[in-house]
Amino acid sequence: MNPRLRRERNAFLLLVASFLVVLLGALPLVTVRASVQLPAIPPFELVDRNKDGFINRAEAAGVPGLAADFEKLDANRDGRLDRLEFARW
Fold it and tell me: Would you place residue 80 in the very low, low, confident or very high pLDDT band (cuts 50, 70, 90)?
């Protein structure tokens, strides 16, 4: 085999091997991050206990974390959350 072609082939193989090493090195970071469990958010229908289509402050108090974020989520400041505002949470 031509020495120049052999060098180019070896350089290419070294490049591919180093790419695979970097890719496999990043794999544990991705799998560790994916294994973090986020708290389960109940469906809108379960939080809306009176079935009026909105979540008021009393209903939000029954969901951990929702009552604390209620002011921030209530975009139109009507004192209740609709489906879209709840989905943003």
Answer: confident
